[in-house]
Design brief:
- Keywords: Membrane, Transmembrane, Transmembrane helix.
- It comes from Mesorhizobium opportunistum.
- This is Cbb3-type cytochrome c oxidase subunit I.
- It is a single chain.
- The longest helix is centred in the first third of the chain and has 27 residues.
- This protein has one domain.
- The protein contains five helices and no strands.
- By secondary structure, the protein is an all-alpha fold.
- The two termini are 22 Å apart.
Amino acid sequence: MPRVSDLFFKTAVVWLILGIGAGLQMAISGDHGAFPAHAHINLLGWVTSAIFGGYYALNPAKAARKIAMIHYGLYTIGLVIMLPALYLMLHGGYTAIEPVVAAGSLIVAAAVLVFAFVVFSGASVRLASELSPATR
């Protein structure tokens, strides 16, 4: 499995654990005010990261490109900024942290645009396994 796929899957599992924790916290406390943050943790953190990992696993030539790791780093940094801030804003009532949520959201959006570039661009790296014996 390509390294970027492995990283996306491992990161996805971390977000899954955090999402389950947020859900349990809401259920135990009876305060469901942070449910949008819980949904974002699960959808953007767990599901979308896992989908990115799957895409790169199915497209190893694209996973081998440097831009794939840039995508991973940018997306992960965006989530690390946005999701805890969103949770604090909704659960803790820290409305002053909204600009941090916005900044993280913009980073995530930029990472999604990088992914779109990866998807729509041709793979510039050919793996040795894809080369015919005559070209090796």
